[in-house]
Predict the 3D structure of the following.
Amino acid sequence: MIKILGRNILRFFVLIALQVWVFNNIEFSGFVNPYIYILFILLLPFETPKVVLLFLAMLLGLSVDMFTDTLGMHASASVFMAFIRPYILLTISPRDGYEPGTFPRAYYYGFIWFFKYSLILILLHHLFLFTVETFSFINYYLVIWRTILSTVFTSIAVMISQFIIFRK
Amino acid sequence: MRNLLNFILKHHFVLLFIVFEIISFFFLIQFNNYQKSTFINSSNTIGSKAYRTSNSVGQYFALRNENILLNKALKELYSENTILYKNHKVSTSMILDSVMLQQYTLIPGLVINNSANKQNNYMTLNIGKNQGVDKGMAVISPAGIVGVIKDVSNNFSSVISLLNQNLRISALVKKNGYYGTLKWEGRSYEYASLYDLPGHININIGDTIITSGYSAIFPKGILIGTVSEIDNYKGGDFFKIRVKLTTNFKNISNIMVVKNLLKDEQLQLELKAEND
């Protein structure tokens, strides 16, 4: 229990540092900006109480917002993602449900399952984020284009993380 | 009352979600109204310290280009000086200092945080209240205009970049003096759009666009860019012009903050005229 808690706290800070110092500086063609800090919400244990999930997402979003001068933007998007996560987990659960003692990772439930799980959540998060960023529905195709491009890059980063860092 | 409590207990997850979203959007809208100073932003101490550290490393990579740019600006200033010197020798009348009234002073600084890929971009500078920077001052670079100061702390300030859809700047065509409104469209960091130019004027691709000096923020004649595309609405009375910006927002580093010493006087007079 303590181990899981410590690991998640460490992951929280490492992901924010990575996001602010590394990934916010990646700008292909002015459209792509991967947001890998949401990996924190993706990897929280299945048993996390839903209310705690919302609190953590709010904290995570505000922390990222503080560094990018966009107070409320990442917070609203990650809270939305945390809200939708339990329903997505329910929808794509394996036949026998989730076993106790396992975590939502490629290591336990396979590459395909994790890809599905992360892609849906990343896509919804990015769509929400970019809609809030432009704050209007004029030229909405631009928002969709940005969403698709950034989702591809975030997904690649998230999948790579499964094979390099969080192998177990 | 009991039913209400039951309802809250039953739907506490959804309700908490809605509460969090309302808080987030409250922040978001409060923040967009950039007149109100925001409490948490990157000009506060922790954020800017972190950026200063990472920036001091990153700056070395841009040094070459910066040097070229600075050299260019230096060369221009130098040549201006020699011209003045020659004229001074030739002319017999002296210009007394007390005849001229200084209107603008410049405060040099460095950009320590910047973005060009968002819909509303902001920058952070390494100068602030202690160096004489205040809200609403103009920011320029050797290549052209950069933005307007939004917020200051003691040693840092945040800037609404020209690449921000909330910023509108009064600009004019240098060769004939017609003015319009410059606004960034949120797409390429190299282009902005100029609206409201009357449709009958003569304008060509490559014409220079400069600031008009009507707003008491930017001095007149600061370079903005050149005309790259002219779009006359079919049957409309106004041009819409695509302007290629001379400032490169991707590698900007050295800037100057423009302090208008007569700003209060001008604004007070204008306010008085409006109220009468």
User: Anything to note?
Assistant: Chain A has a mean pLDDT of 86. The longest helix of chain A spans residues 106-134. Residues 42 and 92 of chain A are 14 Å apart (CA to CA). Helices of chain A lie at 2-21, 39-43, 50-68, 73-91, 106-134, 140-164.
